[in-house]
Amino acid sequence: MASHKLNFTKAALLKAPAPTKGKRDYYYDLKEQGLQMAVTPGGSKSFYLYKRVDGRPERILLGRFPDLSVENARKMAAEAKGKIAGGKNPQKERRAIRAEMTFAALFDDYMTKYSRVHKRSWRYDEREVNKFLSHWFKRKISSIDRAEVERLHAKIGKENGTTQANRLLERIRSIFNKAIDWGWEGTNPAAGIKKYKEKSRDRFLLPDELPRFFEALANEPNKTARDFFMVSLLTGARKSNVLAMRWKDINFNAATWRIEETKNGEAQTVHLPSQAVELLKARKLDSDSSWVFPGNGKSGHLADPKKAWARILSEAGIDDLRIHDLRRTLGSYQAATGANGYIIGKSLGHKSQQSTAIYARLNLDPVRESVNKATDVMFGYVKKPMPDTDH
Questions:
Q1: With a threshold of 0.70, does the pTM exceed it?
Q2: Residue 57 preceded by cis peptide, ω within 30
């Protein structure tokens, strides 16, 4: 543990580096006595008031930096010291409140203070907890124990699949970890529960399935969903990005599509093979929307087209294929036509520590060549030309 003294400013605290694994650094404010900022190996930064209360040293959590500003942290530290001087113990008050907190109140805090602020996937937290844990909302968090979480994990694993069960277990563990960070003295009921072993999925459209898939796709009555699936296959892009595709991000002259922000938090330029360009040009002629795949929902664009996907698979006689597997299909045919892992990763927007430097130097030309080869091979399995994609 290392300690440092400095005048707290936002710029100075933002520069504070994360300590090595297993250690925690503390920074003490020269202006407000007792105010400190703790930095974890993961880079998390939190304000505390460190002061002796009832004869014992206490570290009272004030909030996370930079969500809580330096100025407000100083005010909160001064207020807490005022309570202590008046004979009150803010830490005991906080613990008592947390002990009586309902799961609904905790989840609301979790979403407001953490998930919506720090996670791009916050909508999944909101959806999954409301779907699977709403029966806990009126419960005191201290009443939820490990045995109950284990039973729930097993139930979800049996009824909804092991992957779903594991993701829910991770969410429960994260929510209760935040309760502990925020002053609750209970035990995380998800701690120590083993996740199911997960197999990495390797499903993609096989050569004998491609003609049936393309035929069923051409016969799909929902033209917007039909074109969405085709573009997903031809670009290998993530479903969420294809759904939110905008005309302003497509460069027909360069045959590229610019994704401003991917799952990795970075921008990506996607090559559009000739089949995708022709399809998009046809859609553009009939479009009066800013979205390539418009919809009637709140987002303005197409939502998850599950019914159309089920119809296509049923007509094609294909089992166990997910929309995400279209992304894997492009990568598989790139590999089959000789592309190396770096080029496949570049075209699909993968990110890894090992390949980041190489991706940064790789231009779009070899990616374009690889995607064109892969799509030509896929369409080569179709004995007759695809039906006209005009609308």
A1: no
A2: no
